[in-house]
Amino acid sequence: MAASSSSSDEPSRSVFLGVDVGTGSARAGLFDEEGKLLGSSSSPIQIWKDGACVEQSSTDIWLAVCAAVKAACSKAKVASTEVKGMGFAATCSLVAVDSDSSPVSVSWSGDSRRNVIVWMDHRAIEQAERINSSKSPILEYCGAAVSPEMEPPKLLWVKENLQESWSMVFRWMDLSDWLSYRATGDDTRSLCTTVCKWTYLGHAHMQHVNDKESRDLEACGWDDDFWEEIGLGDLIEGHHAKIGRSVAFPGHPLGSGLTPTAAKELGLVPGIPVGTSLIDAHAGGVGVIESVPQSEAADHDKEAICNRMVLVCGTSTCHMAVSRSKLFIPGVWGPFWSAMVPEYWLTEGGQSATGALLDHIIEDHAASACLANQAASQKISLFELLNKMLETMMVELNLSFIAALTKDVHVLPDFHGNRSPIADPKAKGVIYGLTLDTSDKQLALLYLATVQGIAYGTRHIVEHCNAHGHKVRICRKSTHYLRVAAFQRILSLFRNMLILLVPL
């Protein structure tokens, strides 16, 4: 009783919950009104990989979300009544559910749990090529070609290969939209997901951007001719019921808020507002692109963000830039209107494997296990150990900078295709300079060369975007990073690599 009385005397707090579902885990963060992080937690999610096919379970993802939210609230000592609103961000994976919202298999295995085609799944390369051969005007808004990582090729693959599943699916949803739907029961889709991954034309809603009263809008941005032409005309039926009859600008409240069922599962209070979702990278872009270093605060204006590019790093890397006018850039996704920053056109470049590539290079090496044990004994990460080794090697060889260590080792990082600006999902990676050396020093060099290859890829994207109308400037004095923990492995080197390899 005393504890209860004490808590009732404390001033009421307003706490806001953000849920981010990445490729390997679900994360929950609690923030106060000033944006200060009060506490966070994560929970792993299962993933199945079989060649080009990469699948997950929406049921497993929701359980991970619930576990992360409860753990975050417990760690931060936040009561359920203090949470005043929440929102979701997630990978642009494709979810299939039936009329009862139960999972429908998208897997050759027939396992109904496996109802999510993960963003990085490349099974639909052939379907993407056929869609691109149509030369539809819609393709202008995704770099002149859809990627197998987008939803139309994946949908076409399921229709052509899993007929029974295709006939059972009642809703096809982007993962972040499904999470919002699971939380609220509202089937409204996000302008972010539909525009960036489904070929929806967001600029059809230009006149509604300042309509504060509108929670959702009739989906008037679908191009029916496109769906008919690529063999998916049945998705037009019922006013596009299976892919989205209504859309909303990101952040708009959905339905009547959190349903009683979802609230119980999450340990929260029914009815709290749930905002329309964003793709995970785009949520990061919103959080970073308008942040201004103290030294530049006086010069901040609406045009300043058009000189920036946000790198959102994790399993892959997304390169996000915005402009006041639409810029058509071959091999780079977009222009997407209001998909990230309201009333700005988004350009989205990317590298399909960055963090995942570093993991692959390290884990596949003979010295990996030994180095991991050394790192554990020193109570540091494997990446910290590799960075220390490289610094020592630089001193021993009397070199003036770390990058010079790899003069004979080079990595082309297209191990999972090239998303931008070559836009070739069939591209392959290359390691040049291999010898019979399997030492830990050789692994350190491979690690460094991979970081350099990733940085060169970023340079290629920046230069390509600037050659087609962007005016991205690289700031040497300060660099903003999002999801630092997910990419901690390369930050100590990556900052230097950008300066060394991407000269102004």
Automatic annotation (TrEMBL):
Entry keyword set: Kinase, Transferase
GO biological process: carbohydrate metabolic process
Cited PANTHER family: FGGY CARBOHYDRATE KINASE DOMAIN-CONTAINING PROTEIN (PTHR43435:SF4), RIBULOKINASE (PTHR43435)
Pfam families in UniProt: FGGY_C, FGGY_N
CDD domains: ASKHA_NBD_FGGY_D-RBK
Segments forming domain Carbohydrate kinase FGGY C-terminal: 310-473
Chain ranges of the Carbohydrate kinase FGGY N-terminal domain: 16-287
Entries under Gene3D superfamilies matching the protein: 1.20.58.2240, 3.30.420.40
Sequence similarity: Belongs to the FGGY kinase family.
SUPFAM superfamilies, A to Z: Actin-like ATPase domain (SSF53067)
Origin: domain of life: Eukaryota
Protein name, per record: FGGY carbohydrate kinase domain-containing protein
GO MF term list: kinase activity; phosphotransferase activity, alcohol group as acceptor
